[in-house]
Design a protein that fits this description.
The protein has 3 helices and no strands. The chain is 90% helix and 0% strand. It is mainly α. It has helices at 2-17, 22-34, 37-77. Helix 2 (22-34) runs antiparallel to helix 3 (37-77).
């Protein structure tokens, strides 16, 4: 039984480490407990999609900052 408990704890920790909030973790564990593979897959894919969207938003912000840095550097060279 210790092994199953450890696997459960590792699963929860992995979900936390991937940025899942308590609601997502609860829904995933519900699917896990019921053997709902499609539900688990859907939850993980939705979370991944959300993380990618956040990544793209951050990349856009970095692009804007890089442009401002470039503009400032151009002005300083004049």
């Amino acid at each position: 039984m210790g092994s199953k408990s450890q696997n459960w704890e590792e699963l929860v920790q992995n979900l936390k480490d991937s940025g899942c909030g308590s609601d997502i973790i609860k829904r995933y564990l519900d699917c896990y407990g019921c053997g709902d593979s499609k539900g688990k897959k859907r939850i993980l894919e939705n979370h991944r999609r959300q993380l990618l969207e956040e990544l793209h938003q951050c990349q856009s912000k970095i692009d804007c900052l890089d442009y401002l840095r470039y503009q400032n550097q151009k002005k300083e060279e004049k």
